[in-house]
């Protein structure tokens, strides 16, 4: 008669047979380690699959949180408009035209970018997990898309260091979407509100400065 314990030991749980999903930082590292000269946007789309919305939002927004050469925020912000607009419209799958999919950056630059982002991502990923899913259901997620579209437009404004707050907000939203974490989404909403308040304060200061200059010029003339 066969030993029951030996039969039970051969049973494999369905959960054990499923590989754990890779974290965002792990997928980035895999992309950076590819033996190719360039990494295209199409490569990123294929690597992240159903998480492409959040992945591309994070990939193009997060570098803007770091000090970058002048003009880079506009370069990185342009694809954000395309991604966030589709998220706002509720598209189930991110679509990219061929000319955007084929746009690429050198693997060396991608590796440098990954090396700068990975330590930050590793620390954040320790706290990220699926929770408060109601904040990421279809309708709230479309509202997030609308907010991110507005924040992406702000990235184009030539305001010194003004691109960092909206970039941080988009990054928080993106992490919430990728990891299905409602807490990260709440952080994104707080950061978005802060970004708008900072923009309003800076805009008021700029307008006041221009008015003061014009008044002084009028007196001088």
Distance between the termini: 109 Å
Rounded average pLDDT: 78
Instruction: Please list the strands of the largest sheet in the order they lie side by side.
Output: 1-2
Summed up, the helix count is 11
Please give the domain count: 1
Q: Tell the overall outline.
A: globular
The number of distinct β-strands equals: 2
Query: How are helices and strands ordered from N to C?
Result: HHHEHHHHEHHHH
Outline the biggest β-sheet: 2 strands, antiparallel
Nearest-angstrom radius of gyration?
Answer: 22 Å
Low-confidence stretches: 4-18
Percent of residues in β-strands: under 5%
Which structural category fits the helices and strands? mainly alpha
> Which bin fits the share of residues in helices?
55-70%
What are the key terms here?
membrane; Putative ABC-type transport system, permease component; two-stranded antiparallel sheet; 68% helix; 11 helices; 221 residues
């Amino acid at each position: 008669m066969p030993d029951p314990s030996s039969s039970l030991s051969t049973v494999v749980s369905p959960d054990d047979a499923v590989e754990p999903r890779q974290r965002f930082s792990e997928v980035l590292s895999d992309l950076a380690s590819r033996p190719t000269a360039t990494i295209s946007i199409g490569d990123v789309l294929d690597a992240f699959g159903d998480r492409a919305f959040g992945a591309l939002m994070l990939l193009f927004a997060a570098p803007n949180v770091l000090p970058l050469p002048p003009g880079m925020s506009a370069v990185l912000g342009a694809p954000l408009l395309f991604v966030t607009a589709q998220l706002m419209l509720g598209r189930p799958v991110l679509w990219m035209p061929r000319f955007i999919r084929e746009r690429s950056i050198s693997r060396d630059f991608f590796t440098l970018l990954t090396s700068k982002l990975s330590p930050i991502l590793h620390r954040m990923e320790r706290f990220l997990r699926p929770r408060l899913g109601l904040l990421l259901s279809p309708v709230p997620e479309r509202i997030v898309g609308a907010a991110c579209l507005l924040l992406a437009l702000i990235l184009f404004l030539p305001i010194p260091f003004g691109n960092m707050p909206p970039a941080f907000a988009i990054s928080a939203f993106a992490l919430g979407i990728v990891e299905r974490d409602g807490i990260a989404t709440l952080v994104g909403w707080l950061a978005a509100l802060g970004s708008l308040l900072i923009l309003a304060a800076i805009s008021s200061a700029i307008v006041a400065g221009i008015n003061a200059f014009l008044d002084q010029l009028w007196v001088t003339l």
